[in-house]
Amino acid sequence: MEHNIQLTTPEIAALWTTYIQNSATNCFFKHFLQKVEDSEIEKVVKEALFLGEKYNEEIVKIFSSEGFPIPDGFSDKDVYLSAPRIFTDLFALSFVYRVGQMTVPYYASVLTKIARRDVVAFFDECLRTSVKHYRNALELMLGKGVYDRPPKIPYPKKVHYIHEQQSMLGSWFGDKRPLNAMELGEIFYVIERNYIGLVMLIGLIQVMEDKEVKDYLVKGKKLAEKQVEVFNKVLKEENHLGNIPVSMEVTDSTVSPFSDKLILFLITATSSAGLDLLAYAMATSLRKDIATHYATIMVEVAKYGEDGLEMLIKRGWMEQPPQAMDREKLR
């Protein structure tokens, strides 16, 4: 029968990864809720925490029924609720929005790789509720005036076809065709997510005492600044107004509300997610100069993520994902 079917590797990977990631972001939501002042933002953050905890409870049930070990992940030991706030309410809202940007496509992708009915039903529920919550966060950002809309272009008068390959791909130097809608959209979102990441890094650097981790965060801040600068320059050169998001302030607190392990994991994990998004942006860019920008930055982001991973492993903070049996060692 269906319930006797063993979990496949994609199903194990999806459940395990979801548990770890939710346990990390839940710590941030708990911190925000201790200090939030805006009642509308509080409601959205509470919903985010409720969903994250609900999803993890379901994963525990599935793993327990399979005799599968529950991941350690992150817990209340990694968030210090009495610590002063380091981010404003607007950043808390932007954080929820950014998490939604990552989880909605993640759950959609997972659903294309799994088959067991209970696991499919679980991730289907994750996707539907995450989409609804993301829309709530987006609507609130629009209402608060902190959502910077992507660039607009005049509507075309008719359908056009590409006749000259050189004009579409663009040359390495000299004249270039105008950016198309897909390219403009992806450039906007590269800037937006790096700006949100930049604000987060400013706050985390401010409270970090460990020199090695702090140096890593500073390096990440410079990498985020570079991406904002590079792609804002592209927009301005194309006579589009550079994306200048509404300021989301960081407080003057120097007391960390999070464990060093949680901070290092979150920054490393978001770097990996950013690499995936840069690859997608590169794939949709037909102009060679834009693709070159992406390719160059992807190398730096990949190296940055690798450095973070090595630091997690060196400190014994990296939980090992479920692995296949090493049959060579059984010989």
- Which fold name is given in CATH as the topology of the largest domain? Ferritin
Low-confidence stretches: none
Largest sheet: none
User: What would CATH call the class of the largest domain?
Assistant: Mainly Alpha
CATH H level, superfamily name of the largest domain: Ferritin, core subunit, four-helix bundle
Strand content: under 5%
The radius of gyration over CA amounts to 21 Å
How confident is the prediction overall: mean pLDDT? 90
User: Count of helical segments?
Assistant: 9
Distance between the termini: 35 Å
Number of domains: 2
By secondary-structure content and strand pairing, the structural class works out as mainly alpha
**Second CATH tier, the architecture of the largest domain:** Up-down Bundle
Order of helices and strands: HHHHHHHHH
Number of strands: 0
**What percent of the residues sit in helical stretches (DSSP H or I)?**
55-70%
Description:
With 331 residues, the protein is mainly alpha-helical. Helix content is 66%, strand content 0%. The chain is globular, with a radius of gyration of 21 Å. It starts with 8 loop residues before the first helix and ends in a 17-residue tail after the last helix. The model has no long low-confidence stretch (mean pLDDT 90).
